[in-house]
Amino acid sequence: MIQAGVPEDQAESMVCYRGEGCSICNDTGYKGRVGFYQVMPLFEELRELILSGANTAELKRESMRLGVKTMRQAALSKVGEQVTSFEEVMRCTVADD
Ligand SMILES: [Zn+2]
Known about the structure:
Blueprint: H1 8-13, H2 44-51, H3 56-65, H4 71-80, H5 86-92
Bound molecules: zinc ion.
Zinc ion binds near residues 19, 21, 22, 24 and 25.
């Protein structure tokens, strides 16, 4: 989990579940859908970068520095909330670089 991006101090106490599966969920262990979102507020630092013609890699680096969660990080927080499994997050999101 730490390799995937869960902060070390949170990984230790994180309680994870995996659905066993039943007839209601067709033995998948999943039912319904949950959205993961990456929300990037237009901080002044980002506004300045955009106006100066920065590329997407620069915008990504600065937004992460400012604390914007990536899709994978947002999804991993749903593992900690026991909303989905770690395996499902790995399947549905790409690694952060
Ligand atoms: Zn089920």
